[in-house]
Structure formats: C-alpha cells, structure tokens
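Hi W.,

Here's what went into the run:
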Amino acid sequence: MIPHSFDYMRPQTLNDALKEIENLTPQTEVAILAGGQSLLSALKQRRINPNLIVDLGAISDLSTTREVSDGLEVGAMVRQVEFVGHRFVSAHAPIFQDVAAAAGDPMIRRNGTLVGAFCEVDPRGDWVAAGLVHDAVLEISSLSETRREPLESFAGKPKESRLKSNELVTKCILNAAPENSISAYRKCKHNAVGWSIAGVAVVLELDKERKCRAIKLAVAGATTFPQRLRALELELQGVDLSDEDNLDQLIRPHLAALEFFGDSYASAGYREKRLAIQIRRTLAELSKS
Amino acid sequence: MSAISESSAASTDTGKETTWIGRPLPRMEDQRFLVGKGRYVDDIVLPNQLFAAFVRSPHGHARVSKLDLSKARSASGVVAAYGGSDIQGLKDVPPNWVLPGSHVKGRPPLVRETVRHVGEAVAVIIAETQAEAVDAAALVDVTYEVYPALIDQNLALEEGAPRVHADIKNNTATIMPAGAGGFDAAAAEAYLNIKLTVKNQRLIPFPIEPRAVNADFDAATSRLTFYSSNQIPHMLRRMLAAALEFPEHKLRVISPDVGGGFGPKMHFYPEELLLAWLTTQLARPVKWTETRSENNVATTHGRDHNMVADIAADADGKILALRVRGVANIGAYLSSMGTGVPTINVALFLLGVYAIPVSEALITCVYTNTTPVDAYRGAGRPEAAYLIERAIDRVALELGLDPAEVRFRNFIQPEQLPYRQGVGTKIDSGQFANTLNLALEKINYKALRREQEAARAEGRLFGVGVSNYTETCAMGFGPLLGAIGFDRGGYESALVRVHPDGHVSVFSGSHSHGQGHVTTFAQIAADSLGITPDEIEVIQGDTDQVPFGTGTFNSRSVAVGGSAIKIAADRIAQKMKKIAGHLLQSSPEKIFVSQGVFGTEDGQATIRARDVAKAAWTGHNIPYDFGIGLEETEFYHPVDMSSPYGAHIAVVEIDRETGEVDLKRYLAVDDCGVIINPLLARGQVHGGLAQGIGQALYETAALDSDGRPTAEPSIPRSDMLPRFETDHTISPSNTNPLGAKGIGEAGAVGAPPAIANAIIDALWPLGVKEVDMPFTPERVLNAIEEAVGRDAKKVAAQ
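Here's what came out:
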C-alpha cells in the first residue's frame, strides 16, 4: 500500500499549475490531485505510477462556486459536500441531493470533488449521470487557451483523448432544471463496493394529464460509460409513465444497442436487465409523485 | 454432584447483589481502542528495525524459470533479498492437525520451483524502510512458465486430472469415512428418497487488521522475541521452535492487541517461519505487515466444501437415514487444520440435533491450485449445519409438511441426553423443542405463515426459514485430540495472583482477538474473590508472562479458559478465607466475603481483602504452614466438550423481477449455557450473524480460472444487515464448572441455513428446489427464470 516515489508540486495559482504541465518531457507521466478519492487508491495499489503529481489544493480560485444566468459554476476544488449544500442545488438541481445520499460515504464526499468525479468518468460512479441530465459543461484550460466541452461528449470519448497533457479542467457549469420539473437518481448497489450496477438519473416535466412532456435521462453503472439515452428521451415524450408494461416495451430496445460490462457479482447481461427495470421503476415512481 | 451446583453455591456465597457473572458489563478494554491507543503489531517499531516485502506469484500454477534479484539487491536501502534457492534447509511449514493417514504437503516458506497458488511468495526483500522494501520488490525480475491451474475440487478428483503435487495420487490428501453404514438398506424401505446437492462456497475471512509479524533475535542473549497478530501464541511458540529448530525456552511470542482473527490467525504461516529465520541471520528485527491484497491470497480461506446427500424419510417426515459425500477443497498445501476442519468438524455434526437412526459419511480432502483453506468462524460446523438443515426443509417441502413441525418430529428427545450421534459427536445437553418453540412464539410463526399465504395470493415471493444448528465447543480432551491427529492440548491455563494491596492479576492462556476477555474473565474472578472487576487486570498474549496455554478458537475461551480462572480464583478465595479466619479468630467456613471485605457470619468482625493479602505476602501474622503468597495456577483440562445450539428464523421477500432478496427479519435464539456477560454474548451473536448472513447473501472469493479471487470481495456492512432480534435459553453444560458452552461461532453456523431455507421456501411454488450461496440477485433470478422456463416447456409439451 505504498506508492512508487514521485515528484510533488503544490502550485499556488492556476497559472503556475498550467506552467508545471506545459512543457513536460515525454517520459513524464503526470497525475492531477484534486479530492484524491480515486487517485490515492490507484497510487497505493500501484495501478498507476506517475512520476509527477500536481496538487490543486492550494489554488483558492478553484474552490469557488458562482451562480450565473440560469446555472452554477463549480470550481475544480469544490468538495462534493460543499456543492450539495449550495442553495442552487436545493432550488434548481435537487437530483444531486439524491446522488449525495447514494454515492460513497460522508468521508468520501467531504474530500471528493464534483469536477474530479466528472473528470474520472468512472462507469460505476453516480455523479456523472446527474451531471448529464443538467447538461454540464466543462471548462478546460491550458496556458494558451480556454475551451468548453459538454460533459456528454467528454464522457463518450476514450480516456486518453479526453484531455491533452497540458490541460486542466478548472470548473464545470451546470444548468438549472426547468421550472416545475421533478427529478430522481436511483441506483442498485454493488454489494462489495457500493458502486452502482444500474443507475438512472432523470429530470422530468409532466403535462396536465401527467404524461411526459419533456425528459432528460442518463444511465450509469451498467454501461461502459455514463450516457444520456436521447433516443429514448424522444420516444418517451407524450407517454403515460405510470403504464409500466408499455414503458418496459419502450425501454428494452434502447438498451439492446448499448455496451454493458460485468463482474463476478453482476454480469453484463444481468446489469442490462436490471437497468431496464431501474429506468422503468424510476419513471413510474416520478409519474406518481 | 454436577459442577453446576458448585457454581450456584459460589454465587450465594458472595451474595446475590455482588454476583458479577450474568451482568451486562460494558467492555473494560474499549477505552484504549476508542481513543486510538490500541497497540497492534504494526504499532511496534524496534530499534534497528528492518522491513520485509514479498514478491508473490500472480499465477496459480507455474514454474519459476528465472528469478533475478540483482536489481533489487542493489536498490536503495536494501539489506538482503532471498529467493527459494537462498533458503535451503528451511523446512516447509507443517500443519498442526493431520488426520491419521493423510498425505501431507506443508507450505514452503518461498517457492522453490513450482508455484501452486496465486499469492505464493517467490522472493522476500529486506530493507531499511518499508517503502524501500516495497520499491525493491518491484525490481525483482521473475519469469514464469504458466500452466493451467486446477481450481475446482471435483474436477481435481477426476480420472486423468493433472497433479498438484507430483507424488500425490488423485490430488487426495485424505479420505474420512464416518458412521456405521446401512444407508442402502434403510433407503429401500423408506417412503421418500431425495438427493440434495449443497455447496459451501469459498470465503475470504477478512479481519480488519491483516496479519503482521515483527521478529527480533537478540544475538547477545540468543533469545528470539516474536510479535505476531495471533490467536494462539503458545501454539505458535511450539510450532515455530520446532520448524526453526530453535530452543523453545529462548523463544518468546507476543501477540498484543489483535484486530480480528476469525480462525485464520491461529495458523502457522510461511511468512512467520521466514521472518524468524531472517532475524537470526541478520541479527536485526524484521517486520512485515500484510497488505489487504496480500491478505486476500496469502491468508487462508474458509469453507469451499461440496456435498451430496441422500436422504431417506418416512411419510411423516421422520428422517430414517442420511448419507453424505463431501468433497472439500483444501488448497495447494495443508494449512494447520487443513485436514481436520472439513472431516472431523463436518462429519461429527452432520446429524445436527436430530435423532437419525442410520447415517454414513465419506469426506475427501483435495489439493488444488488455490490458496490453502482452513478454519474460519464455525470451521466445518457451518458446512454440517447447512447440510442437515437444508435436508430437513427439503423433506418437509417434498411432503407438504411444515418445516418447523418436521423438526419437532426429528429432535433428540430430552430423555435421550446425553446422546451419541451415529456419525460421532456427543450432544451433552439441550432442550431443542423448547428453544424452537420460544423462537416460533417470539417471531409469531403462525402469523408469518398466514402472511405468506396472502403474499402468494398476490404473486409475491415470501419465505420463512428455520435452522436448529448445533456445534461442539470448548475443546477438549487431550487424549481424544491426540487420537484424531490434532497436535494441541485441550486444556487452558490460568494464573491468578492477589497482590498485597488487594488488586488482582489474572493471566490466561486464552487470547482475545476482539471478544472482550478482559471483561468476562474479570467478572468470573471477581465473583470468586468477592471484589469488583475493575480491581482485576487480565493479562494475555505474551508467552513470557503466561508461560503455557492453548489459545482462542472453537468458542472455547469462557468454557475452558474461564473455568481455569474460576478454579484458580476459588482456590485463592479458600486460602484468603483461611487467613481471614485466622486473623478474625473464626473458622474459615464461617467467613464470608463481599465487596472486598472478609467478615464473620455474625458481622461482628471484618478485615479488608488487602489486609488479608498483605498478611499472605509478608507471613507476619499467619501460621508457618499456611505458606507464603496468594497465587494459584490451574491447567483446566475438560474431559468432554459442550454443545451449544439454537433456533434461528429468517424472513425474506424476493423481488421476482430482479432476484433481490430482502432479509426482512432475523431472529436468533441461542443456548450457550450459562452466560457470563449478556451484552458481550449478544455482541458475539451479532458478529457471527453478520458473517453468517454475509456467507448466505453476499460473500464469495469468486476465484477466476487462475485461482485469483475477485479484487473487491464483498463483506457485509451495517446497511446490508437487518436489525437482529436475539434471545437465549439456558441449558447449563455439565462439562465445566461454569456451565458455559460457547457463543462466538453460533451466528456464523446458524444463519446460512436459516436464510437458504427462507429463500427456497419463497421460491418453492415456482419449482425452485436448489440454489447455491451466495444468494446474489443474479443467481436468484437465474434460478427463478430457469424454473419458470422449465415450467413453460412442460406446459408447451402438454
């Protein structure tokens, strides 16, 4: 449980941090330390062996949250527990309270950051699915440019092409959920580690007849990466979500095209079945709320 | 006269209000743990400390074709590095319980050429710091020629299977028959004949503190001080001395605070032998603390026993005959109790608490390319209880009878006790029907069955499961242990010393690895001596302070270790009364003691215990022939064991669509004889239940085709367990002076069959007759879908 030795930098400003990673030699493998809840385990088990660790903990600019028009900017060092306590979350993004109740434990949420979870895109994680239904956008900086990328496209890319070696994710921007929408994050836990084996995040607007007027729906845990199910979202428009038999018929074909993964506890096939049930039950639950 | 009445006589002697036995005293040892001041092996850093790190095989079966330690040897801080060829002359670590006639292969300290399980150590690096040792271990260059690994014990027995050890035929370490035979004849007459297949899956024991060793040879005195996180320090001293050919009187084993054992910490391990040898070579202390990943593959596993039972019953559900064939996976080598646990500890208990006239068993222990399997909480008895309790339920369900009723029809009756079972064990005492009745009443069994009927009408899967486990605890009689090849004594030691100021030291050969001995043992001594537990210090786990002992396993600490304390303390109490009688000019028979004061019957004259003690240690004012001191040693050696038992009931509801099992209620009514501390007894029940429920619902090593366990083994967390409902009946044992039995393993033995029975009870209407543990959602769903599919086919065929 002892990592390989590495160089450690704790820059005081974002600019200094970006300088540290700007002109790395090809031999330098760098890891960025924010909340450390994924990184430290990987280091201790020597699953990764970087020779440089850049700790963002001293950069105060990254620890701020700021309300912007119809949204919230969350800095890269904002801890999950701080983020969830923000009034924007209770007013405009309550799904993250569901996530916080289901993800990790109090110690993990005290240290872990929201942006860090977005950067990891662990297929078993909970935060990304909620970020996807809030149309999260990542702000990514290098010394020479700052760009924005939707979390959805970021999560869909292979790990190695998400960020260039000289780039850092400095914040994310979350959209507010529509007025009068309802939402839920529901997951089925892996019995060993508490990760999700089938998770679903939903932001839903119902019409007067309590049918689905608009919906954003993302899945996690079962599929090889967390993703929005946009074709299913379209098909659910106008549908009576309390009709579970009909829902079941609608949902299953959309899952057939996805790629699932499994382990000795829950196979890919089981996760697919379980995810279909999870989506159906979550929608039915919301339709009755 | 039975020992029990002596016990109650002692209680009246000290007056009811001062009886400490039976009180739910909070644990006195917890303060230091709660404030982070516990002292575990890893907390001990000695001057000149060196650290060891191991290089372990990632393969289950391979030949080491190249081992190059040169880079590691020249790395920063490295003092030495060894491979298998560098430790010539160091013996294999031998097992400690070898069933007569077994083919023994001990665990090599390092791989000599052939790797036989994942995690077997190939090299060891010794360095100035732990980090340097670990870094250098990563520089060791090993080339493996990898061969297919033999994982499944039934496959390893097949004709033509490769051999794990070239000179052992059929990979068979031992075969043990039990019972008098006669099954076929009985079955031919029976109304009902059933074949039942059950598996106790392989488990990873998972103590929170992994193993840790610090070996310290002092060249000046030729003494070796050996720290190990261990349940049985005295056995370790003997085994280590023999394997190392080191004089035992110069070897001191210290096992300080131990963060959970569950069985695996009583075995003698390759790392222990190697570190002891290394410190004698390097003349500096060498420490190693196992990582969690190492613990998963290098520390022994539990269970892994496949069984097939033939059951013959009459139309009323009375079981007439039982035949069991067991195939146990013992792993690549024989760990200390490797051949004993799956044979003696299973076969002897296969008939549970039932009077079954005809029984036979045959158990085969098989070598495979897997981590050695050894004792784990329950150690064989969970396997036996699982088989017989599943069998009872199967008979009931096949005949359409109530499973609880079928139990009443099969119980050993009170007038039959003590009862010798056909396959071997002797049940000393018990009131099986009463205990089950209490459990049925407490859970309102009739209402549950009505609820089940209603649930079924709605298509819901609701099940109730009962188990009436038994086990035999408080090992045990020396000659008997000798006869079955168990190289340990059955006694326990106690030394009780009253100091001149009246405080008391209790030294016990038993050793806590979390149970709370300090509290229960102090309660026992306090009653004998007429003082309060906080005036008593209990000392364990150091072979220089406690010269001889046997240790903690087999739920034996209270019944054997506690009895030793009681006997020694009673003798001192007698002597103190004698002295007090002399000092108060009264006869000893007329002296009573209460709350640290000795007095005459009429209450006219009193003397404090400390003044009696001072007189004993100074000899100033007592007759010469009283002798000096207040110190007594007892090696308590029980001639018989005791049989705790219980009635457990589980209530489940299964989600038909997902296969998820909701354990709605769990009730445990245990009979562990006289209870010293009800709070701690309940704690033991809770811990055992967590592990038993863990085996039933969650846990498995889930070995892959190389014998590598899952990287993230499941262990039950508090949010995965129901609220435990517990109660006790008390049938005092007549095999020891406390009347105690044993409670540490009860939950782990009782829970798996109760839950399995509840699940099968829920699924029975769908046609599911067998499912294997752990009952994960996917496994349960597969069973449901298979049964429903089978049904659909039948309908289609018609």
